[in-house]
Specification:
With about 475 residues, this protein is α+β, with helices and mostly antiparallel strands. Among the domains are: about 1-235, Deoxyribonuclease I, Chain A (4-Layer Sandwich); about 315-385, no CATH class; about 390-420, no CATH class. It has eleven helices and 18 strands. The protein has a six-stranded mixed beta sheet with strand order 3-4-2-1-14-13, with no helix packed on it. A six-stranded mixed beta sheet has the order 5-6-7-8-12-11, with no helix packed on it. Strands 9-10 form a two-stranded antiparallel ribbon. The radius of gyration is 30 Å and the shape is elongated. The relative contact order is 0.09. This is Endonuclease/exonuclease/phosphatase domain-containing protein. InterPro entries: Endo/exonu/phosph_ase_sf (IPR036691).
């Protein structure tokens, strides 16, 4: 499992760039400090909510004496089962998220904490955070603490055969408080990358052994030289804990043989066929059966999988991203400088093409507002609303459901147990008017043809499965 960490020094003016940069990465967890966000900025403005569960603690929710700046964020891949625990958060700017890991059918709770301690760090605020963390550590199996501690006076040194760092030069109350906390809780500090001042402001503590920290090849936000971005590789292999959507087979009406469809419908003697039925429901049933048979013969089928790529991704961009991911894995495995050079070239090409495709997609939305405003508002709603997913296991009344059908039945059992039908049903008044007094309805072919031509071809198929295509209106009348 990998975690990308960066002190981004504000996201308000970088939302578009950060959004596009994240689309080119595959990090399982992304942690930001100093986000400078507020409730008026949606998470979907800077990260794809369909790929990540985004947890934020903006400065307005902490007891900081400063009114702006600060803020922390943890984004967890939707392939991982994660939960925010607000009761674990202290008065400082810390954010706690539990990752429920399934490692070889052994469930573990891994707590991820992002923290920002604004300078100058006071002993009171540091002690509050450390005391709160001590209480939390007894409730989980493993913990990872990472963030901007702003304790640059502590010098961290490495020793032979150890991948974690050791503190020196901490002879003050702040230093002693942090070091005593680390040693008393069996924590290790893994960050080994110094900033431009040869100091470490961002620290990574964990109870997990053999955690590896490097500087990532990708840069999500503009880099602050005092806060290098970090990549954590955790020796944890997790199995997916969410139900995967089933592949659905749909008709591809864009590639339908409408010439053959018109011919088949033209051969049907509708007057003769309908005269054999006395009930209008039977007539509608015959119409549906006939149309479905023609569609099944003349319209090709396709597998419909929900794409995890953004809507502006073209085939060329998807291919370029795949090649970039392969080169990244190859470089991390062999550490060949030539692979690094090729990756940098490919990454620049990807970013240029990604920006170009996104700008063209945005221009199409803006230019199409007059003709089809729903596409634009769908884009806006997707940026504002979240996505929902269902775990692979859910329980109700101590009974565990492990499949999609079983989970759906558990929901049905719950709602049926709390549903109370209305007892005062409204009864319709009786009438003595017979059906013979109803007027006749006269509909011509021209009336039907006019309504068919008024159908909105931009909409999809309705519940009957028939799309609003203009290709064969006369045959349907």
């Amino acid at each position: 499992m990998n975690i990308y960490y960066q002190n981004v020094r504000g996201l308000r003016t970088k939302t578009n760039d950060v959004y596009l940069n994240i689309t080119g990465t595959n990090y399982e967890i992304i942690v930001f400090t100093e986000t400078w966000l507020s409730v008026g900025i949606y998470s979907n403005e800077f990260i794809d909510d369909s790929r990540y569960m985004v947890y934020r603690r903006d400065r307005c929710s902490s007891s900081s004496c400063k009114s702006d700046g600060g803020g922390v964020m943890i984004a967890v891949s939707r392939d991982l089962l994660s939960t925010r625990v607000k009761t674990w958060e202290s008065d400082c700017e810390d954010l706690w998220v539990i990752i429920n890991m399934n490692i070889n059918n052994i469930f573990k709770k891994v707590a991820i904490c992002a923290v920002y301690l604004p300078p100058p760090v006071r002993l009171e605020s540091l002690s509050k955070f450390l005391d709160n963390t001590c209480d939390v550590m007894g409730l989980v199996d493993e913990v990872v603490l990472l963030g901007d501690f702003n304790l640059g006076f502590i010098n961290w040194v490495s020793q032979d055969n150890c991948n974690h760092m050791f503190p020196t030069c901490y002879n003050n109350l702040l230093g002693h408080a942090l070091v005593d906390f680390v040693y008393s809780n069996n924590l290790f500090q893994y960050n080994n990358i110094f900033n431009c001042d040869n100091k470490m402001l961002d620290l990574i503590f964990s109870t997990i052994k053999n955690l590896n920290v490097t500087q990532p090849l990708d840069l999500i936000s503009k880099l602050d030289p005092r806060h290098p971005n970090l990549l954590l590789n955790l020796p944890l292999i997790n199995t997916k804990m969410y139900l995967q959507p089933k592949c659905r087979v749909d008709y591809n009406f864009f590639k339908a043989d409408y010439v053959n469809i018109n011919s088949e419908l033209y051969l049907v003697d509708w007057t003769h066929e309908m005269s054999q039925f006395d009930d209008v429901d039977d007539m509608v049933g015959f119409l549906n059966d006939t149309l479905l048979k023609v569609i099944d013969v003349c319209v090709p089928k396709r597998k419909s999988n929900k794409s995890r790529n953004p809507p502006w991704f073209t085939k060329s961009l998807i291919k370029l991203k795949s090649e970039q991911d392969k080169l990244r894995r190859k470089y991390h495995k062999y550490k060949n400088p030539r692979d690094k050079l090729e990756y940098d070239i490919l990454r620049n090409r990807y970013h240029k093409l990604n920006n170009k495709c996104y700008n063209e997609y945005r221009d199409r939305l803006e230019n199409g507002i007059h003709n089809n405003p729903k596409v634009f508002w769908r884009f806006v709603k997707d940026r504002r609303k979240g996505s929902s997913i269902i775990p692979t296991q859910m329980s109700y009344n101590e009974d565990i459901a492990k499949t999609g059908l079983e989970i759906a039945n558990k929901f049905a059992d719950y709602f049926s147990s709390i549903y109370k039908p209305k007892t005062n049903l409204t009864t319709l008044p009786t009438t003595s008017v017979g059906v013979g007094s109803l007027g006749s309805i006269h509909i011509t072919k021209e009336n039907v043809l006019e309504k068919l031509n008024l159908l909105d071809i931009h909409k999809g198929a309705g519940p009957d499965g028939f799309p609003p295509t203009p290709a064969c209106p006369r045959e349907l009348t």
